[in-house]
Amino acid sequence: MAVDTPAEGLGRLDYETYVEHVGSDGRLLIGVADGRLSLEVPSCPGWTVLDLVCHVAEVYEHKIACTLLGREPDPWPPDWPTDRDPIEWLGDAHERLLEMFARSDATTPSATWWPPDQTVGFWARRMAHETAVHRVDAELATGSATPIDAELAVDGVDEILAIMLEGDWSEAPDVGAGGQAVAVSTGGRTWRVVLEREAVTVVEEDGAHDAVVEGDPSDVDLWLWGRASDDRVTRSGDEEALRVLRARLVLATQ
Questions:
Q1: What are the structural domain ranges in the chain?
Q2: What's the pTM value of the predicted model, to 2 decimals?
Q3: Which residues contact 70 (CB under 8 A, 6 or more apart)?
Q4: What's the 3-state SS for 185-235?
Q5: What per-residue confidence (pLDDT) applies to 82?
Q6: Which of 40, 123, 219, 232 is the most buried (most CB within 10 A)?
Q7: Would you say residue 120 has pLDDT above 70?
Q8: Is residue 11 pLDDT above 90, yes or no?
Q9: According to the model, what pLDDT value does residue 193 have?
């Protein structure tokens, strides 16, 4: 169930819904990856499904450690056992992550990389999107992928724009950015992304813009993550603005 918002009920989801998505998409990922570890992942150049599985297991372990320790684990990562079956490791880490979420609630303290939100609720949201996108990665390795849940995808668009993209970019200035505004629209919501040379600002509004990216929620979410080609969304307006947006997204999602 989503928190009520003016935008057709699609907005930030509640804690239990995020956890449900971590569970369901995680189980799908494990099922798709099992027996296919040698396949290449086209959406993650240079990775095989084995690399993807180990990455997600390590991400889950990190969130568990952040919560149990109440601080960033250091050093990280530890030396993982080299003889552990990767599918079993992912399954075990996934189960322990869900157990941690079950013992907690949205307000339980946890160390996170987002200063305004130091709670398990932050990780529930982040892991729901992390798991959904990597489930798609695993499916793409087999040839085709199923969409991300529409409500989760709209929230994923909000997360990537408002948390990962917005902010100070003074350490990676883009000389092509000069205040261009790109409207990103899906699921009845629109975000206005303003691209400055050393900063990105994001406001949820349908204001003046130089370019537009719009489409189905899953397609827009995956396009922002670099998992969907340009033909999966509708792009219009100033090509330079779209180029700057894509360049910023590549850095923001590394």
A1: 15-146, 153-252
A2: 0.93
A3: 109, 110, 111
A4: EECCEEEEEEECCCEEEEECCCCCCCEEEECCHHHHHHHHCCCCCHHHCEE
A5: 86
A6: 123
A7: yes
A8: no
A9: 98
Q: Which two tokens stand for residue 50?
A: 């084995």
What is 15-146's CATH superfamily?
A: dinb family like domain (1.20.120.450)
Domain 153-252 has CATH 3.30.70.270: no
**Nearest-angstrom CA–CA distance, 80 and 226:** 29
Residues forming beta bridges with residue 191, ordered by sequence position: 184
Distance (Å, whole) CA 105 – CA 212:
37
pLDDT by residue (tens digit) across 174-200? 999 999 999 999 999 999 999 999 999
Angstrom distances, CA of residue 71 to CA of 67, 100, 127, 138, 182? 7, 16, 18, 31, 37
Residues with Cβ within 8 Å of 159's Cβ and at least 6 positions away in sequence, in order, are: 125, 126, 129
Decide: 247 and 254 in contact? Cβ < 8 Å: no
Q: What is the pLDDT of residue 2?
A: 30
